[in-house]
C-alpha cells in the first residue's frame, strides 16, 4: 500500500489508550449486534436493530472526536461519518418499513459513505499503530457497500448479510485494539 502524503498529527498517549478502549467496545457491540440480527432474522425488532447500528457508529465517532486533541482537517472525515450515520439511521427506519431490499440499498450507501472517512482517519492515525486493520476495514466497507447496494437494487431480502459485515467490522476493531502501540512503545502496523 502506498504511503499517504497526508500529515500525521501528534497524538497524546492518552488518546491511544482511549482509542484502544473504544475499539474494544465497538468490536463487542458489532459482534453482539450481529448475533441479535441472526437470531431475529425478521419481525418487529428488525427495524430498531437496523437503526441502532448507525446511531451507535455516530456516537462512537463523536466520542472519539471529543477525546482527540488533534484539530481541523482530521475531524472533517469524522464529522462526515457522524452526519452520514445519523441520516442513515433515519433512512433505514423508513426503508426497512418499505422493504428489505430498500433497507439493503440504504445500508449499502451507508457502508460506502462511512468506509471512505474511516479509511482516511486511519491513514492519518497510522503512527499510533493498529491502523492497518482500520484501513482495510474502510476499504472493505466500500466494497461490501457496493455489494449491498446491488443486492438491494436486484430485490434481495437477505438482510442477515449485513450481519456478516458487522462481524467482520467487529473483528477488525478487535485486531486494531490489540495492535495499537502503547505510549512510547514499539512499532505496530
TrEMBL record:
Keywords, comma-separated and alphabetical: Membrane, Transmembrane, Transmembrane helix
Q: Could you identify this protein by its name? A: DUF308 domain-containing protein
Q: Which residues cross the membrane?
A: 30-56, 77-98, 104-123, 135-153, 159-178
Instruction: Say which domain of life the source belongs to.
Output: Bacteria
Amino acid at each position: 500500500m502506498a504511503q499517504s502524503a497526508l500529515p500525521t498529527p501528534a497524538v497524546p498517549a492518552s488518546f491511544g489508550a482511549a482509542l484502544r478502549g473504544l475499539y474494544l467496545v465497538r468490536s463487542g457491540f458489532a459482534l453482539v449486534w450481529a448475533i441479535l440480527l441472526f437470531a431475529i432474522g425478521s419481525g418487529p425488532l428488525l427495524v430498531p436493530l437496523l437503526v441502532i447500528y448507525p446511531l451507535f457508529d455516530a456516537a462512537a465517532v463523536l466520542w472519539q472526536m471529543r477525546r482527540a486533541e488533534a484539530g481541523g482537517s482530521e475531524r472533517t472525515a469524522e464529522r462526515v461519518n457522524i452526519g452520514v450515520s445519523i441520516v442513515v439511521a433515519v433512512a433505514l427506519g423508513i426503508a426497512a418499513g418499505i422493504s428489505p431490499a430498500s433497507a439493503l440499498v440504504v445500508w449499502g450507501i451507508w457502508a460506502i459513505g462511512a468506509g471512505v472517512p474511516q479509511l482516511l482517519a486511519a491513514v492519518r492515525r497510522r503512527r499510533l499503530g493498529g491502523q492497518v486493520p482500520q484501513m482495510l476495514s474502510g476499504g472493505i466497507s466500500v466494497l461490501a457497500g457496493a455489494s449491498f447496494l446491488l443486492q438491494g437494487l436486484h430485490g434481495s431480502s437477505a438482510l442477515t448479510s449485513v450481519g456478516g459485515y458487522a462481524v467482520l467490522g467487529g473483528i477488525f476493531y478487535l485486531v486494531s485494539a490489540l495492535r495499537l502501540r502503547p505510549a512510547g512503545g514499539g512499532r505496530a502496523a
